[in-house]
Amino acid sequence: MRVIIKKDFDAMSETAKDILLGTMSQDKRVNLSITAGRTPVKVYEKLIPYVKDSDDFNNVHYYNFDEIPVENQAEGITISEIRKLYLTPANVSEKNIHKLTVENYEQQDERLALDGGLDAMLIGLGGDGHFCGNMPTTTEFEYATYKIKVTGDEPWFEPSMMHKGLEFVTMGPKSVFKVKHLVLIVNGESKAEMVKKVLQGPVDLAYPASILQLHPNFTVILDEDAAKYLN
């Protein structure tokens, strides 16, 4: 595990951009899985000018690592957000976008293997210690890509964001460990205690991201606020 600590959100994002750009610049097909949410916003802002309308990155193929479907909406929350933040402004060709859905999740791991595996994955860290869709109480470390049905009793259940019976899918720890380079970005003091737990505490299902300590090629990029409790 390599931990990189940068002064602030902008510097952290610049470092993440450089790492992704290095991977994307290889002279071969590159398979990249990227995250939605607030944390990667500046990473994408910095990456888009390099990628937009450039033939240099036609080799890069994109995969979402989890998905939450929305009733009466053609695409789920994750891919819709990734499109808004990066894929659409970067003018990424549709043929280079490979969607994980509730309908095709059982084929995800085989599809990735046939495509050559994921060269890199950019993820964030949940305040409760989740990563991707691997949530406390519904994750087992041996899971590959799997489906979760929300009961409403989960500690992370939020009625304003989901409903009982909702089914969503995610690449599990077993699938994520096949990624050649895993990159975690975290900013802000609000997640500093969880950063300490998942990076320097014991591997514990209560904090699913703690398993990532064991990934063979794991880079963590933090701003100073998120890193404040690390030894």
TrEMBL record:
Please give the superkingdom of this protein's source.
Answer: Bacteria
Any one GO molecular-function label of the UniProt entry: glucosamine-6-phosphate deaminase activity
Question: Could you tell me which InterPro entries the record lists for this protein?
Answer: Glc/Gal-6P_isomerase, GlcN6P_deaminase-like, Glucosamine6P_isomerase, NagB/RpiA_transferase-like
Among its keywords, does the record have Chloroplast?
no
Per the UniProt record, the source organism is Vagococcus teuberi
Q: What is this protein called?
A: 6-phosphogluconolactonase
Membrane-crossing residue ranges in chain numbering: none
Q: Name one Pfam family in it.
A: Glucosamine_iso
List keywords of the entry alphabetically: Carbohydrate metabolism
Annotated Glucosamine/galactosamine-6-phosphate isomerase domain ranges read: 14-213
A single GO BP term for this record reads:
N-acetylglucosamine metabolic process
